[in-house]
Amino acid sequence: MQNSEKNLNRNDNKIDRNFHFERNNLEESILKKSERKESPT
Predict the structure, then answer these.
(1) Gap between the Cα atoms of 35 and 41, Å rounded
(2) From CA 30, how far away is CA 1, in angstroms rounded?
């Protein structure tokens, strides 16, 4: 019982980390896009 709870927590952390990672990537690409728009080259 306790063991499976630990595993659940580990999975939650993994999902959480993935989510943050994905969001950071998104924000970075959005930033890059807006930078491109501002500098007309």
Answers:
(1) 11
(2) 44
* pLDDT mean over 29-38: 85
Instruction: For residues 26 and 19, give the distance between their C-alpha atoms in angstroms, rounded to a whole number.
Output: 11
Amino acid at 34: S
Tokens of residue 25, six digits? 């990537």
Structure tokens at 5: 């709870």
SS3 9: helix
3-state secondary structure of 1: coil
pLDDT per residue over 1-31, tens digit each?
578 888 888 888 898 988 989 999 999 999 9
